């Protein structure tokens, strides 16, 4: 029963997404913005557990009201996630592609030498 509780909303979201996909704006700027938001979700998820308590603690110590602390920690985590998604992940991806391209070509060279 618990599985149905989580699967049904996901299936409904997928169906609605497919059904109303043509209503999404075709602007390249908006698509790029939405794509960047999507790429930020995983770094945001990973960062929020460590960064948020630290930021909230520091801002509380500085005497800021709780609502401002919450907004500031979301903004701080969002900016860090954006930086990671925009700069760190592409650089790491290119590095890994280069390294694995070199490694993946080695077995092909060995096979061609044996043949």
List keywords for this structure.
single chain, 115 residues, mainly alpha, extended
How would you briefly describe this protein structure?
This protein has 115 residues and is mainly alpha-helical.
Structure overview:
The protein is extended, with a radius of gyration of 22 Å. The chain has 115 residues and is mostly helical. The protein has helices at residues 2-19, 28-61, 66-114. The mean pLDDT is 83.
Secondary-structure class: mainly alpha
Largest sheet: none
Radius of gyration: 22 Å
With helices defined by DSSP (H or I, 4 residues minimum), what is the helix count? 3
Morphology = extended
What ranges have pLDDT less than 50 throughout 5 or more consecutive residues? none
Would you report the number of β strands? 0
Q: What's the end-to-end separation, in Å?
A: 57 Å
Q: What is the helix content?
A: over 70%
Strand content: under 5%
Name the helix and strand elements from N-terminus to C-terminus, one letter apiece: HHH
Mean pLDDT: 83
Helix and strand layout, with pairings?
Elements: H1 2-19, H2 28-61, H3 66-114
Helix pairs in contact: 2-3
